[in-house]
Amino acid sequence: MRHLMFVGAALLLLGLAACADVVARxxxxxxxxxxxxxxASASTSAVPAKPTPxxxxxxxxxxxxxxxxxxxxxxxxSTVPPGMQAIVAxxxxxxxxxxxxxxxxxxxxxYSDGPLGVNGPHQAWRQLPFRGVTADYFVDxxxxxxxxxxxxxxxxxxxxEFLLAAAGFTEDEFWQIANSVRPA
Length: 184
Hints:
The chain is built from 4 helices and 10 strands, in the order ααβαββββββββαβ. The protein is globular and about 40 Å long. The chain has one domain. Helices cover 21% and strands 30% of the residues.
């Protein structure tokens, strides 16, 4: 559910930028100064705030994540097609990155957690080895060569699960991206 909120916010951000014919530029993150006032402290809740997505180049995604993620390893694909932008949302214990091209015909997502399951008459699921563990691999529609694909695994010696998904890529292209996932 959490990743759907990030994706929704990211898509809204991209839609607004496209409608306004504006390219979003990442801005430096504000640095908190001073001490919190009692009024500010009283308004905080036990539920962590949703991170605000930031747009960056594919290469800038790693730097954006390292500035915020401290509780889990940061894994990213090193093979991302040229011209894709990254939308990064992160907290100390989780992150979501969505890479997309200008036409939104090709999209890659990587989450530090994600749901399982596929629904549809032409879905496929299998378990296979990936990065030294058994991963769950899903294809949403086996009749469409560029259907959405998802790979879900628990990283060895890591404190979390990861989901890599892609739409608009063939099976071979998906595995080129998946096999390039490395610590950033």
